[in-house]
Design goal:
The chain is of the alpha+beta class and about 425 residues long. The chain has twelve helices and nine strands. The strands form three sheets. The protein has a five-stranded mixed beta sheet, with helices on one face. The two termini are about 70 Å apart.
Length: about 425
């Protein structure tokens, strides 16, 4: 049997127990709570704990006076204190949507009543949502003042300086502890998000690296087979042909002809294999072609706000130009996500005088960039690709603090150098 596990911010209630799987074996686990129900359950738990805190903090004589004097109304402040404390506890139900407003509603119940735990929970929520913003600082100051002051004020004035000094210390603890825990929870949440993104980025780069290594190996094998093995087999075929012509007898002539035929067959098979290797090496590259559909897919998967400005493109772009333009947009958007968090990107693709122009601009980053892994060769690879196709590449910072990448590819690219 297991006990449910509830989470109230940093406070986790519940326990692990033995649960049985379908095969009858027991294992340790916790009773899962649907994600949509966790928030409301945590809010209800916060209200219950805060109400319990008010009840325990309320002096015994107050309860007696409330029963005796409620009808006579001899002490008008007593029902106000109880009512404000109750309102403070119930206000925690809105702490997720309106953290600062909730704290403002709770402060009177803490100052005049006994809603200290409710104020601490509201301040923790505010610190977690707003970090060290002005609302958190103001909320901490209100909580500290509410803890330091005593209602009614004539009793506060009558306290000794030692009691005032002790109240100051407790005020700092009551206000500082929720802020510290809230900031810690926010830091942990951000750390988890960055770790997840770092893991995804690392897996993505590992896949791309594996693909690149595999394609490089295929290209190397194709080049070695073309330049080395094919050359040697060609020489064998030529020597066999010469031997056939100058053969001194018929058996030698037949053997030379057999060697020549086998050499020619081997050359044909080598050509097919080299073509297959080179086709596989270029298959992934040629599969990523530039068109409105692929651009929309890049924009949707870029994790940044992208505005596409694509003019009408020719029906048949050269495959190498189309693939290069696609990679340019992909790499530029990846760099925006890595190095300019929060910035918007504008992608311009158009044709001018038999030249395909690709331009990706982004504004200044709104947040400091994350330390995501980067090989540092993306822009260099784009520049090298543009040069191989007879185009131009330019990348530089813009006047508004952003960055721009501009690449041009001729629609009739220069032939690539042979391997």
């Amino acid at each position: 049997m297991t006990t449910p596990e509830l989470t109230l911010g940093w406070l986790r209630l519940g326990g692990k127990g033995r649960v049985s799987d379908g095969a009858g074996a027991s294992r340790r686990g916790t009773l899962a709570i649907p994600p949509r129900a966790r928030g409301p359950l945590a809010d209800v738990l916060a209200v219950v704990l805060s109400a319990l805190d008010v009840w325990l903090a309320m002096p015994d004589e107050v309860a007696v006076q409330w029963k005796i004097q409620a009808s006579a109304q001899d002490d008008p402040s007593l029902p106000h204190s109880i009512a404000l404390s109750a309102v403070a506890c119930l206000a925690l139900l809105a702490r997720r949507r309106f953290p600062f407003t909730t704290l403002l509603v709770i402060v009177p119940g803490f100052l005049i009543g006994w809603a200290q735990l409710a104020a601490m929970i509201a301040l923790w929520t505010l610190a977690r949502r707003k970090l060290l913003g002005w609302q958190t600082v103001a909320g901490a100051a209100l909580v500290a003042i509410s803890r330091f002051l005593m209602w009614p004020l004539d009793e506060f004035v009558a306290l000794s300086w030692r009691e005032h000094a002790l109240d100051v210390m407790w005020s700092l603890v009551v206000a500082g502890l929720p802020v510290a825990l809230g900031l810690l929870a926010a830091a942990r949440q951000e750390l988890d998000a960055r770790y997840t993104e770092l893991k995804r980025s690392k897996e993505r780069e590992q896949r791309l690296h594996a693909i690149a290594v595999r394609e490089q190996e295929r290209t190397r094998l194709a080049r070695e087979m073309h330049d080395g093995v094919s050359h040697q087999v060609t020489l064998i075929a030529m020597q066999a042909g010469a031997l056939k012509v100058a053969a001194p007898d018929e058996p030698t002539e037949q053997s030379a002809d057999t060697i020549r035929q086998l050499s020619l067959q081997t050359l044909s098979e080598l050509r097919e294999m080299v073509g297959l290797l080179r086709t596989n090496a270029q298959q992934a590259e040629n599969g990523c072609q530039l068109d409105p559909g692929t651009l929309d897919e890049l924009a949707q998967n870029a994790d940044v706000e992208v505005a596409l400005h694509v003019q009408e493109l020719p029906e048949h772009l050269p495959p190498e130009v189309s693939a290069a333009a696609y990679r340019t947009v992909q790499e530029a958007l990846t760099n925006v996500y890595k190095h300019a968090p929060g910035a918007n990107a504008d992608v311009h693709v158009r044709v001018e005088q038999d030249v395909l122009l690709v331009e990706v601009l982004n504004g200044a980053p709104e947040n400091p960039p994350d330390s995501l892994p980067s090989g540092g060769y993306g822009l260099a690879g784009l520049a090298e690709r543009a040069e191989q196709l007879g185009g131009s590449f330019h990348a530089a910072a813009t006047d508004d603090g952003g960055f721009g990448v501009r690449v041009s590819y001729p629609l009739q690219p220069a032939p690539a150098p042979s391997a």
